[in-house]
């Protein structure tokens, strides 16, 4: 276990900048690259380490393979951490990050590909962001591929809200159908649109949870039981455009996070899009 826990430190060290398309695309691509590397390693053993470290078939855009042994020594990397190959990197990170991986890395060899999540600095923009890694232990080697999970900006949230408002004005029925069908570009990673009829106070469209459609928005509460729908509806009686902060599940991370929603009235509808922050 002690040796495996050292791997947690390396996971947090070895990824460079990643530019994502969608969370699902990145997940599939990362897992596929790891599966390819595992097959190659099974056939070639440690001779595969050189191939993993070259700029070649084991580099997929900003995703790449890295390998560490259970003592914390980096054996291969196709990314920025390649300069650390041959070094024990187990002391590079503090003990505060070990707990998040302890349970995930307790899985013994032979259990297939495992997954883990954590937060770490993106070398591309300097921000601390959510990351996801696929990894598998093979003997005393652990092969891994990871990627940053997309997190939308306030500007992107406002732009998506305004896009939905314009679309509703142009084609009300078609836009509501598109939102509920996850089409028309109204679902963008952790951004989605929801629409409430201010006359009936009910959802008429929701970009990720169709079970909410036709339910009473005024009764909506956050996971802690704090009212969300009623205060938002009250804001809409006072102004045509507003903002509201609350706690809600992020569809990408599947965790309850802080959400900042941008609200706008158009006709008898309220259109809302919110971005998430940890």
Automatic annotation (TrEMBL):
Topological type in the membrane: Multi-pass membrane protein
Lineage of origin: Bacteria, Pseudomonadati, Pseudomonadota, Gammaproteobacteria, Pseudomonadales
Domain Single Cache, chain residue ranges per copy: 19-102, 154-230
Top-level lineage group: Bacteria
Species, as recorded: Pseudomonas palleroniana
Signal peptide, first to last residue: 1-20
Keywords per UniProt: Cell membrane, Membrane, Signal, Transmembrane, Transmembrane helix
Compartmental location: Cell membrane
Record protein name field: Cache domain-containing protein
GO cellular component: plasma membrane
Main location: membrane
């Amino acid at each position: 276990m002690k040796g495996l826990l050292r791997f947690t430190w390396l996971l947090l060290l070895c990824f460079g900048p990643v530019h994502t398309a969608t969370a699902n695309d990145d997940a599939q691509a990362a897992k596929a690259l790891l599966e390819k590397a595992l097959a190659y390693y099974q056939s070639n053993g440690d001779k595969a380490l050189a191939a993993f470290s070259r700029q070649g078939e084991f580099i997929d855009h900003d995703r790449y393979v890295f390998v560490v042994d259970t003592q914390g020594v980096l054996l291969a990397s196709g990314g920025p951490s390649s300069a650390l190959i041959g070094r024990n990197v187990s002391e590079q990170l503090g003990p505060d990050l070990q707990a998040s991986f302890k349970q995930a890395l307790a899985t013994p060899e032979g259990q297939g590909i495992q997954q883990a999540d954590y937060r770490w600095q993106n070398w591309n923009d300097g921000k601390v962001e959510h990351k996801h890694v696929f990894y598998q232990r093979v003997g005393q080697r652990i092969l891994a591929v990871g990627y940053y999970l997309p997190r939308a900006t306030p500007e992107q949230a406002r732009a998506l809200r305004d896009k939905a408002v314009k679309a509703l004005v142009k084609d009300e029925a078609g836009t509501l159908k598109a939102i509920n069908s996850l089409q028309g570009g109204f679902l963008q990673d952790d951004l989605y649109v929801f629409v409430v009829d201010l006359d009936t106070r009910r959802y008429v469209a929701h970009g990720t949870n169709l079970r909410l459609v036709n339910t009473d928005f005024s009764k909506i509460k956050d996971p802690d039981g704090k009212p969300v729908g009623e205060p938002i509806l009250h804001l809409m009686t006072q102004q045509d455009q507003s903002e509201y902060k609350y706690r809600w599940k992020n569809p990408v991370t599947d965790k309850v996070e802080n959400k900042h929603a941008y609200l706008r009235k158009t006709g008898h509808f309220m259109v809302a899009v919110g971005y998430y922050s940890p």
